[in-house]
From TrEMBL:
Sections of the chain in a coiled coil: none
InterPro entries: NTF2-like_dom_sf, SnoaL_5
Residues annotated as domain SnoaL-like: 1-121
Pfam families (alphabetical): SnoaL_5
Matches recorded under SUPFAM superfamilies: NTF2-like (SSF54427)
Protein's name according to its UniProt entry: SnoaL-like domain-containing protein
Native source species: Niastella koreensis
Length: 121
């Protein structure tokens, strides 16, 4: 698949909250996830290597959420081997007040698979 095709599929599946399917179908097995430095204060690893480790991190993160009130992934912007999206959600974490989270995800595609994802928030 081209970067444009992967971006379109990511957008479609993200808006359906099919995160495991995104990772299983679009990500290389050695994909890298990079979070901002402040993620460590939230108990998240800044660098995660490998599709299975990224999937496990996502499952653990979603387990801390009591309710997802809304979730939206913007239309992707594609440039060469990269695409980016804005991810916005309103959630209630277990035992916490409702918050709105916004981030930009940048994805690097090579040979028809995502090889790196990086988030800014």
């Amino acid at each position: 698949m081209t970067t444009q095709e992967i971006a379109a599929r990511y957008h479609e599946m993200a808006n359906q909250r099919k995160f495991i399917e995104i990772q299983d179908t679009l990500y290389h097995e050695d994909v890298v996830c990079q979070e901002p430095e402040k993620a460590a204060a939230m108990g998240m690893a800044i660098l995660t290597n490998g599709r299975e480790a990224i999937k496990a991190k996502g499952v653990a993160r979603r387990a801390t959420i009591e309710t997802v009130h809304s979730y939206v992934c913007s239309e992707p912007i594609v440039a060469g081997e990269y695409f980016s999206v804005v991810l916005k959600q309103e959630v209630t974490f277990k035992g916490k007040p409702t918050v709105t989270l916004e981030e930009i995800g940048v994805f690097h595609v090579q040979n028809g698979q995502v090889i790196k994802e990086q988030f800014f928030y």
